[in-house]
Specification:
Distance between the termini: 27 Å
Radius of gyration: 29 Å
Number of strands: 3
Shape: elongated
Oligomer: single chain
Strand order of the largest sheet: 1-2-3
Structural class: mainly alpha
Length: 185
């Protein structure tokens, strides 16, 4: 545990030193992804299309729910007049309709449901285009790194500021010679 802390501290210090050596020459750009998604016409159109389809699915759910409520009310009103077998049959029909509603919700808005799939389908070309433009501007305007102000993600980075291999090399240099790990230096 103590060795791990020392190693993490060493990596952090190495990273800060590396950064401070290059900081004077680093050109950083920022992008407000929320603003892009709310004003870029292709993103707005894709979101409107998704909203339209979502409203249609919500209407379908509303119809199913209203039908369930209607049948429940009907069963309540007729329960004294129905035989035991008929009451069980109607209760089973209600349970089946309820299960159908639950399945519809899950298939539409659940994980990997229609909504998620359609959102991916509509937004993938939009995100691809946004990323193309960010990469183009990053290269053309000589940015070293471009960050998203909303998410804090790195959207573009020059290869020369990536110190991942240096960190790996340093970590591997600490390995005892007897290990079977290949040395990447």
């Amino acid at each position: 545990m103590k060795v791990q802390r020392i190693l993490i501290t060493a990596v952090a210090i190495l990273s800060m030193v590396s950064y401070s050596l290059y900081a004077a020459d680093v050109k950083i750009g920022v992008v407000d992804s929320q603003r892009i998604l709310s004003t870029y016409a292709a993103a707005v159109d894709a979101n409107k299309q998704l909203e339209t389809e979502n409203n249609q699915w919500a209407q379908e759910l509303q119809k199913l729910t209203e039908e369930l409520q209607r049948q429940e009310k009907e069963l309540d009103n007729q329960s004294l007049l129905l035989s035991e077998a008929k009451r069980k049959e109607r209760t089973e029909e209600l349970r089946s309709l309820f299960d159908q509603i639950q399945k519809f919700r899950e298939n539409t808005w659940g994980e990997n449901g229609k909504y998620f799939q359609r959102q991916q389908e509509l937004m993938r070309p939009v995100f691809n285009r946004i990323n193309e433009v960010i990469n183009m501007l990053g290269e053309d305007d000589d940015y070293d790194i471009v960050l998203d102000t909303v998410q804090g993600n790195v959207l573009y980075a020059k290869q020369n500021i990536d110190i991942t291999q240096d960190v790996l090399d340093e970590l591997e240099s600490d390995l005892p010679e007897s290990t079977d790990q290949p040395n990447r230096r």
